[in-house]
Amino acid sequence: MNKKQFPYCQDWAIGVDLGGTKIGFALVHKDGKIKEYTKIPTLASQGKEQVVGRMTENIHQMIQKAKISPETIAGIGLGIPGMVNPMTGIVRFAPNLPGWENVPIAKMIENEFNRPVMIENDANAAAWGEKIFGVARGMKHLVCLTLGTGIGGGLILNGEIYHGQNFFAGEVGHMILNQNGPECNCGGKGCLEAYSSATGIRNQIREKYEEMRQKENDFSSIPDVNQVKLIDLFQQAREGHPVYSEVIREALEYLGLGIVNLIHLLNPQMIVLVGGIANEGEKLLQPIKRIVNQRAMPSYTEDPQIVLGKLGNYAGIVGSAALFFPDR
Amino acid sequence: MNKKQFPYCQDWAIGVDLGGTKIGFALVHKDGKIKEYTKIPTLASQGKEQVVGRMTENIHQMIQKAKISPETIAGIGLGIPGMVNPMTGIVRFAPNLPGWENVPIAKMIENEFNRPVMIENDANAAAWGEKIFGVARGMKHLVCLTLGTGIGGGLILNGEIYHGQNFFAGEVGHMILNQNGPECNCGGKGCLEAYSSATGIRNQIREKYEEMRQKENDFSSIPDVNQVKLIDLFQQAREGHPVYSEVIREALEYLGLGIVNLIHLLNPQMIVLVGGIANEGEKLLQPIKRIVNQRAMPSYTEDPQIVLGKLGNYAGIVGSAALFFPDR
């Protein structure tokens, strides 16, 4: 097709990663390169109008700074930490964004920029990013786990994001692995997230200290594990810290079991791990792979690759932009 | 399109349900009605040539008996209890059919009848049957659980059977729900099948008797639970049998948890229960629904219908035939 027929080549897309604490913006080229990137605090408590205002302001600035014509932007993709309907562009609700209930965010942004807007759940966006530009290029069936404060899941099945009936699919973090297990944020018990998310790990550490204290009639206060960085928790666990090592061993064990269940159920080509905990890299992968090899049925253990995402913390933002870039 | 252009209307398909103990055959009209039906013992131990021989013989007889021209048969669909590749028509392996490894069964049947042959895993066939002619007509996303000797799963996602990368998807029976749970046939521990299949229930009953015997220093022998019909086990459990009621309560509890995990992961419109245990009907559904309502996240509990299959023991056979009937 002759490019001259078109006034502009739409080589760009903007990705926005709307998080509970930070909003990331990126201008992404269709080859996957990030040309502009910026990050601002969400300040969600100021209300959604304020948040949307800061979003549009920053998108305007980014376009100006990049010195590209708005017509060369294929669209704006938003990754949102909640239940969203990509067909209507409405955020149904987002637990970490107070007041975000039934917000027609796509329409709001579209009106401002006169460019197409697509929205996705953030874990789905991360999965799509890894598929289009990351470690899962060319994969048809994959599960992407976002291992952070919580645990999210993005399913790509038959080459497309799988949404389910009400766009709620992929809640891997709330797979129940022990019905009598620790309490989860969702109100349930023994969910994967209650064991293997950053929050779950910290809660379990506090639990263990509390148990020890009661057993030993120790009235000293429990160390504030929120003050310890995740990377240090993992490091000290490996060095044999009596509490951390037990909790993290269990966290990885349950993460492995969750992955076994995903493999048995969906028979994916690849499981991609992203998010803060995935920064542990190979040290995370090895114990998980060992558990999967032990617990998955023999016919499955040869197949699925369990890998780290390639886009790091940019998976969601690049994936949101890549909603406008077709599969290659 | 003018029907006169075609010499024949292909209004029929043959469905074959190849089980470990019995083979069912049905001539199915495209409106879903069964015109002919027959069932023979598999006699799997005689070897696969013998089994295939009896299959072709019975298909020939069925066509003759129905007095239809073979050209009016759109095809022959085979539901097979194992890992099959529907693209190549090869059975990779089938645990309950000794010697069935890499058997090009589709080609073998095709050569005999000169009609197209399609193969499917039996749980997938049952899911498809319920979708095309049963309780799940018009559904886009559904999970069908075959609750029998084992527990199988058929996933219909986006209106199609979902196979996964190696056609292994849907092993719902081997979802691990308690990593320290009872041993499962697959070699693992605490799989759904180890709790909630007929085999799992019987094993757990034996376990419980054994525990009681040891606790009470009782040297009498354990009653042979294999001699008690499944329907009687359930009935006696409801009447308060001290061992059966505990085991079956747990079996339904884990079945409910497994369904919660499926709902969180796949957000289906419908969960369809078929197979021997599903014959319990409403008495089975009520406790399961209660558990799902307790344990699923609130946003999910309104949506998915948990229902009994409509085709009963014919789901697999009608579904195998219906592989030739497009979705309506």
Tell me, rounded to a whole number, the average pLDDT of chain A: 93
Unreliable segments of chain A (pLDDT under 50, ≥5 consecutive)?
Answer: 1-5
What is Rg of chain A? 21 Å
Kindly, what is the distance between the CA atoms of the first and last residues of chain A, rounded to a whole number of angstroms? Answer: 18 Å
Q: What is the number of E strands of chain A?
A: 13
Multimerization state? homodimer
* Main interface: chain pair and counts: A-B, 46 and 46 residues
Which structural category fits the helices and strands of chain A? alpha/beta
Major sheet size, sense and barrel closure of chain A:
5 strands, mixed
**Total of DSSP H or I helical runs spanning 4+ residues of chain A:** 10
What percentage of amino acids of chain A are in beta strands?
15-25%
Strand ordering within the main sheet of chain A? 3-2-1-4-8
Helicity level of chain A: 25-40%
Helix/strand order of chain A, N-terminal first: EEEHEEEEHEHEEEHHHHEHHEH
How does the overall form of chain A come out from the CA principal axes?
globular
Secondary structure blueprint with pairings:
Two copies of one chain form a homodimer.
Chain A: E1 12-18, E2 22-29, E3 34-41, H1 48-66, E4 73-80, E5 83-85, E6 90-93, E7 101-103, H2 105-113, E8 117-121, H3 122-132, E9 142-147, E10 151-157, E11 160-161, H4 192-196, H5 198-215, H6 230-238, H7 242-266, E12 270-274, H8 282-295, H9 298-301, E13 305-308, H10 315-322
Parallel strand pairs in A: 1-4, 4-8, 9-12, 12-13
Antiparallel strand pairs in A: 1-2, 2-3, 5-6, 6-7, 9-10, 10-11
